[in-house]
Amino acid sequence: MPNTVFCHYRVAPGKEAAFEKLLHSHWPTLHRLGLVSEEPSRLFKGEEPEGGLLYIEIFEWQEGASERAHEHPEVMAIWEPMDRLCEARHGRPNMEFPHLAPLDA
Predict the structure, then answer these.
(1) What is the pLDDT of residues 67-83, one digit of tens each?
(2) Is 5 a member of any domain?
(3) Alpha carbon distance 89, 79 (integer Å)
(4) Which residues touch 36 (CB under 8 Å, ≥6 apart)?
(5) Residues 83/74, Cβ–Cβ less than 8 Å
(6) What SS3 state is found at 104?
(7) What is the per-residue burial (b if ≥16 Cβ within 10 Å, else e) of 54-84?
(8) At what angle do helices 16-32 and 73-85 cross, to 10 degrees?
(9) CB under 8 Å to 73, separation ≥6 — which residues?
């Protein structure tokens, strides 16, 4: 069963354009490699309450794919620069990836 990840990216000031270019290639790359579900990612941009730009990306991994992604050079070619474009702030890391399961309403 796929699981949903809510990616939090705390993008450093002045790095938005470079980050967005990588972000827009992220899900298509994961999808082409068979790592995510058919449902396209959902992207959000806003400000954290304490200040600072925050991007959220939501998508569903295929079972076991999040671990396999760390071994794929095409994925790492996106993740490593994304990491450098983000910053830790307000006691939070530069990027967070909570994996969540839906609840019945």
Answers:
(1) 999 999 999 999 999 99
(2) no
(3) 19
(4) 2, 27, 30, 59, 60, 61, 62, 65
(5) no
(6) coil
(7) bbebebbbbeebbeebeebeebeebeeebee
(8) 160
(9) none
The owner of tokens 């579900």 is 37
Strand ranges in 2-103 using DSSP code E only, listed in sequence order: 3-10, 42-47, 53-61, 95-96, 99-100
Q: Which residue has the tokens 């699981």?
A: 3
Max Cα–Cα distance, the chain, nearest Å: 40
Per-residue pLDDT averaged across 28-39, rounded?
A: 97
Cβ neighbourhood burial of 9 (10 Å; 0-12, 13-18, 19+): buried
Instruction: Please determine, for residue 2, whether its predicted confidence score (pLDDT) is greater than 70.
Output: no
Q: Is residue 30 part of a domain?
A: yes
Which structural domain, as residue segments, surrounds residue 28?
20-96
Domains in the chain: how many in total?
1
102 vs 105: CA distance, rounded Å: 9
